[in-house]
Amino acid sequence: MTDHDVAQDPDERRLSTREAADRLGVKPETVYAYVSRGQLTSRREPGGRGSTFDAREVDALARRGGRREPSGAGSELAVRTGITLIDRDHCYFRGVDTSELAAHHSYEEVAEWLWTGEMRRGIRFTAPHDALTAARRAVDALPAHTGPMDWLQVAVIAAAAADPLRFDLSERAVLDTARTLIPTLVAALPQRAAGRPPTQAGAEEAGAGRAGAEGAGDGRAAGAGRGAGGVGAAEKPAPELAADNGPLAPRLWSRLTSEPADPPSLRVLDAALVLLIDHDLAASTLAVRVAASARAHPYAIVSAGFGALDGALHGAASGLAHRMLLEVLDRGSAAAVVADHLRAGRRVPGLGHPLYPGEDPRARALFALLEDVPRARPALQAARDVITTTARHKEWHANVDLALAVLTVATGMPAEAGETIFAVARTAGWIAHALEEYDEPPLRMRPSGQYSGPRPPQPLP
Question: Is 91 helix (H, G, I), strand (E, B) or coil?
């Protein structure tokens, strides 16, 4: 029997190496890599030259999501997931259109439903005292030049250190962590007082209790260096700041801008949080699944996501669109700004998405909501001018980064605010992916490397 023959044993349903490879969508050598990693077992038939495999075991591995290798160079890691489906110009969470979810439910409601399958109206997430105190102290100790992704990354590590039960990976424990980690991240961000740069929430004042910690606007006077470690005079909390048990969107608003919040603008922010919860296996989500495959705890998997997100080609893309819209508004012409980008060999920010042949459905939903925000009209018109200008030569459609830029420009938020919204929102999706991955065999996210170095043996250097 050769390696490509079928084992003649219908009762045990044995497959040849070639048949197993075909079912898994991989090369024959990858099948043997699965054997070496303990993911498959092989058996050599008496008198045969090739190995055979149990069909049921091969099918089970395929259902878990094996490595798919298309013809030609390179390979692609395919992971089965029941969270997000992207189908042409629509995006679905568990089969439900994300635009519909954003139109009818809050971020917390959708996150809870995504994790548990239960839609709990009015659910609120609360930051626990110990985690919030640790996170604020860590953020407060950072140098003055640091930004939101720095704050979020140290906040999640500090919150983990404050949680001795973080290694409990039971579903109930992971869900408890998720419901407290997200508001902790938001509350650890500096407040933006009217007419002043962001201020740090004082860690000592956070010790007053949950409600006081979340609702207080205590922080440093502008100009006090974070690296010095001292805490300045406390500020009186702004009256519009959300209470500890309020919706997450108003709490995040006060960390993004000093301008007052109005219901239409808050509605856009909340919808953006919903729409950005997940987007299939983006780079940061794949990093999360790899960490979860190694059984990292929820804080660590979120930290892995932040690491991958903190790049110009992923989370920071909306900041580029923000700056472009400001330039369009300043110069009064999208044509001149677009021309400058193209002349420099840069793609126009906020346009095009490899997963959508037409307009990004997340952008479409946010643009519709932004129509109801009067102060967004100039930025919205600037975005339309950019789209119209490029449409004469390229079939580029708006993506969610351009819609986020309209929101951040219109409401006085800094360029990095879009990335902050993205990071907070995506945390819920990362938890959903971690819950899926915790149910899979551990360490399965282990693709085989293709060695391209010098062939051994080589002389000792």
Answer: strand
Is residue 125 within 8 A of residue 177, CB to CB? The reply is: no
Give the pLDDT confidence score for residue 33 in this predicted structure: 74
Please name the residue that has the structure tokens 């692609």.
76
Sequence-separated contacts (24+) of 47-51 with Cβ below 8 Å: 47/1, 48/1, 48/7, 49/1, 49/2, 49/3, 50/1, 50/2, 50/3, 50/4, 50/5, 50/16, 50/17, 51/3, 51/17
In whole angstroms, how large is the CA radius of gyration of the chain? 25
pLDDT of residue 76: 52
Distance between CA atoms of 116 and 82, rounded to whole angstroms?
Answer: 13
Q: Is the peptide bond before 457 cis (omega within 30 degrees of 0)?
A: yes
Nearest to 187 by CA among 146, 236, 245, 239: 245
- One-letter-per-residue 3-state SS of 299-336: HHHHHHHHHHHCCCCCCCHHHHHHHHHHHHHHHCCHHH
Model pLDDT, residue 19: 87
pLDDT recorded at residue 37: 66
Give the pLDDT of residue 286.
Answer: 95
Instruction: For residue 50, give the DSSP letter.
Output: S
Contact at 8 Å (CB) between 384 and 325?
no
Please report where in the chains the tokens 């979020």 appear, as a residue.
152
Start-to-end CA span in the chain (Å): 45
Helices 107-116 and 417-438: angle between axes, nearest 10 degrees: 20
Of 239, 144, 261, 258, the C-alpha closest to 195 is: 258
> Can you state the angle between helices 361-370 and 377-391, rounded to 10 degrees?
140
Place of tokens 């954003």: 102
pLDDT of residue 221: 33
Considering Cα of 143, then 145, then 147, then 150, what sign does the dihedral take? negative
| Block residue for tokens 């092989």 | 42
Q: Given this model, what pLDDT does residue 416 score?
A: 95
Q: Determine the distance from the C-alpha atom of residue 242 to the mean position of all C-alpha atoms in its chain, rounded to a whole number.
A: 25
Distance of CA 98 to the CA centre of its chain: 15
Distance CA 328, CA 459 (A): 60
Query: What is the rounded CA–CA span in Å between residue 356 and residue 52?
Result: 42
- The Cα 176–Cα 168 span in angstroms is 11
Q: Which residues of the chain have pLDDT under 50?
A: 1-11, 67-75, 200-243
Contacts (Cβ under 8 Å, ≥6 apart) of 442: 293, 294, 295
Closest CA to 289 of 81, 27, 9, 35: 81
